[in-house]
Design a protein that fits this description.
This protein is of the alpha+beta class. Helices cover about 20% and strands about 50% of the residues. Strand 27 and strand 28 form a beta hairpin. The longest helix is centred in the last third of the chain and has 43 residues.
């Protein structure tokens, strides 16, 4: 029982001693002051960094103290960045006042405990003295980040940050060492194993090594990546793993993500697919076809046909402006989406009034690409006017002429026959005779229709009566 009590007492003594040493305080000569080291901000102190050291001075006597000053000396590896001397005008009995110094730690210093000297002097007491505090300095592992993921074209020129489907591109990854120590034996790995990642390394592996990166510096490495030909335009998140060792042989692993954009600039081919306009004053429909010749999907496409004008001037002065055509249909049409290597068409109805057989058609396109970037494009399509004869279209004018000739021959033959019977009558009388014949003929046809309708009505009535009887 005695041994147990003794061990318990020793335990409390050890804890108490550690606690006192951790607070770090000093007493001045005659116990008139006590100065405590309160904290470091930020903590702990790191090589190459600056921190604030906070102290607190307390008046242990029963009188006011005036004109008191505290000075912090420079001593390797610490340099005072703020004012080295703190002046205190008055300190009442039992009261405490906090104060601080800003210090910078040398970047080449090793981890360990270092002494800092604090000198104090009181004009009131006429006393002064110097004491030391212990300052711990320790390197802390900082996050090593992939600061850049820049894409540049290898075989073709592409927009920064975009990889074209089916093309090989160089992906430049920059690694910055933000720690305060040397990084060694660095391994950088891109994880392209996911089925949702349409990228593959070409000519290299997805893992590369760097021998070392000094503190505060960076290094770049290049991965040759190819986007699969059927890859959809999108932003793809690629897992990045960075593994390295510090100067003491400790191993660290950092996981990060980089974003790579697959896509490209939308491209169009515009053509007049069909037209039934055959002269410069004609009215008809034209069909404009849009072909997606790019590698990215075109979404939410709207086509707007503008007006084409011609200007009449007199010695360079505009005196008249006139439209080459009027748009009789809607001038703005929504087409929607067009996949790569696909097409869609829009139809407009126009009334031409053009001085030329070639008419310019200004077209405005509004759409988005596969990554939802908005675009506006102004294009021009040229309508070339060809006659029906030039197009090889047979007209019915010859047939009408033949029919007209046959009609004249029949009239003449009929007149000749009618004249033999009616010798005193002329051709006008013959035409009146034909008119009467036509009226009689149409009258008979009309009468037959009426009779037929009446028969149909009677049959319907009989059917209704038969149904009622049943």
């Amino acid at each position: 029982m005695k041994y147990k009590n003794l061990l318990l007492v020793l335990f409390f003594l050890v804890v108490f001693v550690n606690f006192v040493s951790a607070t770090q305080n000093i007493l001045t000569i005659g116990n008139e002051f006590r100065i405590d080291l309160i904290k470091y901000d930020p903590s702990p102190l790191e090589p190459g960094k600056s921190s604030d050291i906070w102290f607190e001075i307390r008046n242990l006597g029963d009188k006011d103290i005036h004109s008191f000053e505290v000075n912090l000396a420079n001593s390797f590896p610490l340099t005072v960045e703020s004012d080295r001397t703190i002046y205190l005008s008055r300190l009442e009995p039992g009261k405490a006042i906090p104060f601080k110094f800003t210090i910078h730690v040398n970047e080449n210093v090793q981890d360990g405990d270092y002494k800092v000297s604090l000198h104090y002097y009181s004009k009131t007491m006429g006393t002064g003295s110097t004491n030391s505090f212990t300052i711990p300095i320790k390197r802390i592992n900082r996050v090593v980040s992939a600061t850049t993921a820049k894409v540049t074209g290898s075989t073709v020129k592409i927009d920064p940050g975009k990889i074209l489907p089916g093309e090989i591109s160089e992906v430049l990854i920059g690694i910055q060492n933000t720690a305060a120590y040397l990084m060694k034996d660095i391994t950088i790995k891109l994880d392209l194993s996911s089925d949702d990642t349409p990228l593959a390394p070409i000519g290299t592996t997805s893992e590369k090594k760097i021998e070392e990166i000094p503190a505060g510096e960076s290094a770049n490495l290049i991965f040759n990546l190819m986007a699969l030909p059927d890859a959809e335009s999108d932003v793809y998140k690629i897992p990045l793993e960075i593994s390295y060792y510090d100067e003491l042989g400790n191993n660290y692993t950092k996981s990060d993500l980089i974003g790579l954009i697959i896509g490209g600039d939308p491209k169009f081919h515009v053509e007049i697919k069909e037209s039934n306009i055959y002269n410069r004053k004609d009215t008809g429909e034209i069909t404009i076809n849009f072909v997606n010749t790019g590698l990215t999907k075109i979404k939410f496409l709207t086509v707007e046909l503008g007006k084409s004008k011609r200007v009449f001037d007199f010695f360079g002065i505009k005196i008249l402006e006139k439209d080459n055509y009027k748009i009789l249909s809607e001038d703005k049409v929504y087409l929607g989406d067009i996949d790569p290597d696909d097409d869609d068409s829009v139809e407009f109805r126009l009334k031409l009034d053009s001085p030329s057989n070639k008419v310019n058609l200004p077209i405005k396109l509004n759409f988005k690409d596969g990554n939802n970037n908005e675009y506006t494009r102004d294009l021009n399509a040229e309508l070339e006017i060809y006659s029906k004869k030039e197009m090889g279209i047979k007209t019915s004018s010859n047939g009408i002429k033949i029919l007209f000739v046959i009609l004249i021959v029949v009239l003449l033959l009929g007149y000749r026959k009618w004249k033999k019977v009616n010798k005193d009558s002329g051709f006008i009388d013959y035409l009146k005779h034909l008119k009467e014949k036509v009226k009689i003929l149409f009258g008979k046809v009309k009468a037959r229709r009426i009779i037929r309708k009446n028969r149909i009505k009677k049959k319907k009535v009989k059917k209704r009566k038969a149904k009622k009887r049943k």
